[in-house]
Amino acid sequence: MYDVAVIGSGPCGVSAALKLEELGVNFILIDKQSFPRNKPCGGVLPFRAVEEFELNPEAFERPLLGYRIFSRGGVEVETSFPGEGALVDRAKFDYYLISRLNKEPVRLRVRGVKAVKEGVEVLCEKKVKASLVIACDGANSIVRKSLGMNYPELATALQYSFRLNNREIERRIGNWFEVYYYFSRGYGWITPLKGIIKVGIGGLGKEYNRELLDSFIVSPIVKDKLEGAELSGYEAHRIPMHGPMKTTVKNRVLLAGDAGGFVYPGTGEGIYYAMKSGIIAAEVSEISLKSNRFDDSFIEAGYTEKLEASGLLSLRDIDFIDTVLKSPQAAERYVKKLAKLNSIY
């Protein structure tokens, strides 16, 4: 029997595992896939992630200066980080994080979890039992669903990859993550990597489909940046856009990362919040184990306190989708305000 079973080996799960390893907690890290593996993602690491987690620059595709934001009406504004962030390829970055562990993830397909005497059983090909579980298995979390916990509404994100000469990427986009507030209850983006541009859309509603993505890549500004680029891939995934769930603990299971809704709704940024929430979940797990307290009220109180102190629960208060992004007109007003503030400061 393990002290903790961590489900999912993305940045959230590996960050939790690294912290458990540091704390001397007996754990198993589980993922259904082998690594390296591709992962649909914009690949944004803000400055605070690079600084706080002491990440090796060799794992980065290019530095990130900040966000370049566009409105449908043609307003453009740049918001710079206080320091240098990074843009990453998730296949490489996730594999780098795993390489920091002393033991590799165990490849198992999890079907859910169930409460058993003095612990939690992870339902998969082999018997895995733990005192606690940290669910880091993404927006479509199997663990969360098996507990009967439903996220309010998941956004659909679709993304193309294009090959383009790195010099052209530098000239057309540079070291910026570009956000396009062209749509209702969603947005588009362009991520520049090494010889690759990732172009995507994400939002709430049935209109977020491949047809809308196809119209986005031929829209003004975007079309020019893709001139001569060669389409090389297509991906789709889900994103939680309403902030962290009201309840993040049930039956000795802590929800972290996308599984718990830890994503910034204005840009879909989730890597930092995934890593931070995974680390906090590991710290709370160790406290629970040392205290021999496994009731939900005790775990939830400790988790909430640490999440609150870190600022992660403030994501619940950001009603970005249904205010700023409720329409292209509302987004236009927002970008104009940003531009005005930039001109003042």
Structure report:
With 345 residues, the protein is of the alpha/beta class. It has a domain at 2-40 and 91-152 and 244-317: 3-Layer(bba) Sandwich (FAD/NAD(P)-binding domain), CATH 3.50.50. It contains 10 helices and 16 strands. Strands 1, 2, 6, 7, 8, 9, 15 and 16 form an 8-stranded mixed sheet that branches. α1 packs parallel to α8 and α8 packs across α9.
Name of the top-level CATH class of the domain at 2-40 and 91-152 and 244-317:
Alpha Beta
Distance separating the two termini: 57 Å
Shape: globular
Which topology of the domain at 2-40 and 91-152 and 244-317 does CATH recognise?
FAD/NAD(P)-binding domain
Number of helices: 10
Overview in brief:
With 345 residues, the protein is α/β, with parallel strands linked by helices.
Produce the secondary structure layout.
Layout: E1 2-7, H1 11-23, E2 27-31, E3 44-45, H2 47-52, E4 62-71, E5 76-87, H3 90-99, E6 106-107, E7 112-116, E8 119-123, E9 128-135, H4 142-146, E10 154-163, H5 166-172, E11 176-181, E12 186-192, E13 196-203, H6 210-217, H7 222-225, E14 230-240, E15 249-250, E16 253-255, H8 271-291, H9 296-310, H10 328-344
Parallel strand pairs: 1-2, 1-9, 2-6, 4-11, 9-16
Antiparallel strand pairs: 3-5, 4-5, 7-8, 8-9, 10-13, 10-14, 11-12, 12-13, 15-16
Helix pairs in contact: 1-8, 8-9
